[in-house]
UniProtKB/TrEMBL annotation:
This is Redoxin domain-containing protein. It comes from the Bacteria. It holds the Pfam family AhpC-TSA. Residues 25-141 form the Alkyl hydroperoxide reductase subunit C/ Thiol specific antioxidant domain. Coiled coil: none annotated. It comes from Pedobacter boryungensis. The lineage of its organism: Bacteria, Pseudomonadati, Bacteroidota, Sphingobacteriia, Sphingobacteriales.
Length: 158
């Protein structure tokens, strides 16, 4: 019985590694999200001069709150990336969240609403928080499906 469990786990782990390696290097998908003023924001609106960090979050997610708070405190250390916070919540809730965690007044942070709830279809997940790091060629470098310490992002940002 233990052998069967171990073999099942080993196979699952190998499949997961193969699957993650398959998506690394994929191009940033097409999308349409909305700025807090209800203006459309798409992939072609993103400048290609720096790395991108997409953070998919919910305003009532405790892990998302911790992530946003830490990013708010360490934003000046993240100089090589644009950070796009994307949420399916109402824009009023996103604005309150961003004010509370002090992520609303930084040039490198953009708040976006996933009004049509397409994030999971385009990026492949609906986990809160999830984080996707893309290089300046808009190729996926790293994907996190959980809260991660901000310091652990630095090794993926050049």
């Amino acid at each position: 019985m233990i052998t069967i469990i171990f073999l099942s786990y080993s196979i699952f782990k190998k499949i997961k590694v193969i699957d993650e390696n398959k998506i690394l290097g994929e191009r940033l998908p097409d999308f349409e999200f909305f700025l807090m003023n209800n203006q459309s924001f798409m992939r072609n609106n993103i400048p290609k001069d720096r790395y991108l960090i997409f953070i998919y979050f919910s305003t009532d997610c405790e892990y998302c709150e911790h992530e946003a708070e830490e990013i708010g405190r360490k934003i000046n250390q993240i100089k090589t990336a644009h950070i796009l916070f994307v949420s399916p919540d109402k824009s009023s809730e996103i604005n309150s969240f961003s004010s509370k965690y002090k992520i609303d007044n930084h040039r490198s942070i953009l708040l976006l609403q996933d009004k049509y709830k397409i994030f999971s279809k385009r990026f492949g997940t609906s986990v809160f928080p999830s984080m996707y790091i893309y290089n300046d060629n808009q190729k996926l470098v790293k994907k996190f499906l959980k809260q991660v310490p901000v310091d652990s992002l630095f090794k993926y940002l050049k």
